[in-house]
Design brief:
By secondary structure, the protein is mainly alpha-helical. It contains six helices and no strands. Helix content is 66%, strand content 0%. The longest helix has 37 residues.
Length: 111
């Protein structure tokens, strides 16, 4: 979609035939349009649609592919290191617990 197409917004209200409100509403809508309030509100509602405003030619070749750097893997390395540290901590706890249990048994049998 191009910018020229976005600018062609139609606003319409439906009234019964011969309604006295038609002239009043036309006057209000015309004034809102002249002051740019309708365009402002419309653009505020589509603020996140900037990709649609780009020309089609700009969207075709817009791939930003790049080779992976070492910085891309820092999170994975930190997770791996934390897992290794936790596994080592559990292993050492088991070794110490086993050693204290064996020393208690040894003290009980010698007494």
């Amino acid at each position: 979609m191009s910018e020229s197409l976005i600018g062609m917004v139609q606003i319409s209200f439906m009234f019964p035939e011969g309604s006295p409100l038609k002239k009043e509403i036309n006057h209000v809508v015309r004034r809102l349009k002249q002051f740019g309030i309708l365009d402002y509100e419309y653009r505020k509602q589509i603020a996140n649609a900037t990709e649609c405003l780009k020309p089609i030619s700009a969207q075709i070749g817009g791939n930003d592919l790049r080779p992976l750097d070492l910085g891309d893997f820092y999170g994975v390395f930190m997770l791996y290191g934390a897992g290794l540290f936790l596994a080592f901590l559990v292993f050492m706890t088991e070794v110490v617990a086993s050693h204290t249990e064996k020393s208690k048994r040894k003290n009980e049998t010698t007494e």
